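Data's thin. Show one?
=====
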Amino acid sequence: MQTIVFTVFAKNYLPYARVLMDSVKRWNPQVGRVAFLVDRVDGYFDPCAEDFEIVSSEQLPIEASRAFHFKYSILELSTAIKPHAIRFLLDRGGVENVLYFDPDIRLHASLDSILSRLESHSFLLTPHLTSPLADERRPSELDILRSGAFNLGFIALRNCSESRDLLSWWQSRLDDHCRVDLANGLFVDQRWLDLAPGLFPGMGIVRDPGCNVAYWNLGHRRVEQGADRWLVNGEPLIFFHFSGFDAERPESISRYQNRFDLDSLNPPARRLFLSYAGALLERGYAECKKWPYAYGAFSNGEPIPDVARSLGYSMPDATADPFSDSGYQDVVRSATASPRGGVLRPLAAAIYDSRPDLQRAFPDPDGEDRARFLRWLLTFGAMEHGLSQSFLEPFRQDWESTVSAIPSALERLRHRSLLAVCNRKLKSRFLPSPLSKDAQSEPNGRANRSAFGINFVGYVRSEMGVGESVRCAIRAARAAEFAFSVKSVDRAGGPYRLMDGSVADNAASGLPYLFNIFHVNADQTPSVMLAVQHEIALDRFNVGYWAWELEEFPARWAPSFGYFREVWTPSSFCADAIARASPVPVLRVPHAVHVNEIAALDRSDFGIPEDRFAFLHCFDLMSGFERKNPLGAIAAFRAAFQGDASCHLVLKVNHAELHTEQMEQIRQASAGLPVTILERTIGRADLNALMNCCDCLISLHRSEGFGLTMAEAMFLGKPVIATAYSGNLDFTREDNSFLVRFKMTTVAPGCQPYDKGLRWADPDTDHAAEQMRIVFRSAETRTAKAHRGREFVRRELAPRAVGAMMRRRLELLHSRLN
């Protein structure tokens, strides 16, 4: 009799399913492996090429299947089909046991102990908790109560009458009530099985510490690494549940908790998470995560708001297709129907009822808060809930009629000005409306009465480039004697190590000033906007500070323009790329460069020989292996100095532990060369010391938005060898740098977030080698260029100079706003 392990996944989760099934095959080769796809392939991958069976959820015998697939969000649908899938597998001849695992689970041992327990139980579940939670972190015991006593990332069933009774009961509940609706006691499939121990006496509870280890019980389960296996509390680890884990941001371990981060775990547990991150990346994580969800849009391409799925619709019969053109029209009509008894239309009422934050912000949406609530719905609400123009038009009409009824002429004027802003942007589907290209503005309520100054919003303590961006801007504002405040959106345990945020010391708190400047790139803008107060953000003059490394700005990020009236960017290259796609003004405001913290370290601290000329190449593997092009720097060094022991190459690598395959390429390319590879993450002052210890910085990048490391090296008086292309050309010039020729080439597949087929540079390795030899052999030439570079950066990119540029622009805008 056969045992089958199965999972359920959408195609963006294919790498998770692959890693799960790889682990099943390794530890349980005799077990059948099946994955149900709640999505359509649409040519993104070949199901026949996978090493496990893939079954479309549309093949399951679900009554009114198209309506079933429509009415649930991706999370709800993935859980609602479980009993259907289990029955489908049990009905296959010769199947004795069926085990379900969430796709973000990885097995680390045989399933024999679970299968042996099934011999005496009809089905098995694992509890979220086997010990109390004693701190104030998330998830709390109250959070667990809301989501369910048992975690349905795992269930095992024996083919028996009681299991089939369970499936019939469970399926009948999930067919209509598999919702995330905590207010009404529902959390997809999990809460229903809280009733299972009383209804089905053959149920077994698996309390083994090695089963379903996850962030919610990790405080009670210590991970260790034995000689040949992983252990939890001294017992074998059977399977680990990496719920909420992002392979490209492993530091937080899960977006659903704040109890742990990677650094707080013991070394074996850290290795377990990093190993899983590496496995996901190797199995296509970066590519697959952007694949679209087929059931997320109508057949005409319009996105389906999840909130509209639960409202119901009046299709003429059960076989009708809600994804079709007629279904689209019916859903829009039902969601925006004139209210019966109340004042809000069904879609607005559903959003309001599901959001305690809206209930606090707009306590009287049918009365005095009506205009403000509708304004929110047409701006931030449209963004957050994915509402297209068809859904929004009736609410625009409601807003207009509400404003018309306001008795005060001044208030009507203010609201109509805001309405005009929104109307323009609704037509182009960017919300809320920015200024026009010439920066003309309508009156803007409280914004005009706010104090002149800047509210900086960004990753103030993050080590990544966008974190240094906001720190540079704060230095510029301080040098220009701006009044400013700082709002950090760093997440504890986020994707990068947090740095010292003292640059923001003595800044005001809150968002008290007229201008908000968001140092957050386009892809992260919507999520960061959730971290600020909507009304404050809307009532200020919002500026986005973005960087982008290619000539063509991605169309998929275009909606982010809608949050801003203006976009600033650090280089002419970025400004040209973004402006071609932008409906708002785009200005170059460079980074303010000032290196003032240098640790008291010398070459011996970094393992660099004292008697050699040292070339330094710094890069972060999270910023793009192909774009940073370390292999080009290594090849140029080999061509320039192979056999010459007078020169040394230093490679400073961030996040090497997450990119083992790429690090292996770097080591192989460096074989036989005098190279020091520094893989550890170091602080800002230590990095400055490393740069100061070396003789020359080399960057054979394919493209840069700005090239801050090059500018910092020039500030320190170091000669710089750089590709003569992209953002660095604003400050690396023929007279102050050693520029390298290049040819244009296309981006290869797998270089996310850069789309294949777009253009970037391919630096000439032979010319780079020639420039390296000139730098090494001609002290006079390198000293002269390094001196000119130092003078240029300290003059043109000084905090005072950049701050003055910011002040001129904001004073002009301020005069127009008043």
In short: The first helix runs from residue 14 to 27.
